[in-house]
Amino acid sequence: DNNIYKFRKNFITFSNKFKIIINKYFTTAIYGAGSHGLGLLSMIDFDKSKVKFILDLDKLKSNKFSPKTHIPIFSPENIDLNSVEAIIIIASLHQDEIICDLKNKYYFNA
Length: 110
Description:
38% helix; 3 helices; globular
C-alpha cells in the first residue's frame, strides 16, 4: 500500500536525521514526553547515553522515566538546561512556544 510506503520512507528519513543530531553532540536533551514523541523514540535505535533527560511541562510526567528508553523526564523549571549542548524538540505542535520559552524563560543558550 502506498501509505505504508510513505510512512516507512518518512520514518527512515526522520530516524536518520535524529541519529545525526544525537551523534553530533556529547550531551543532548529531548523536549516533549507526549505519547507520539515517546512512541517515536521507542522505535528509533539511537545512543541513549547521549540523551541526559527529556523535558516536559506536564507535572505528572516529571521525575519519571520514559517507557522503553528509560530516559529521565524533568520539568524545564527544575533542571539546568545549559548542562546539555542541544535540545531536540519532538513536540512539533508546540515548537514555536517551546523555542520562545527555552530562550526567554529558561535562558537556554545553545
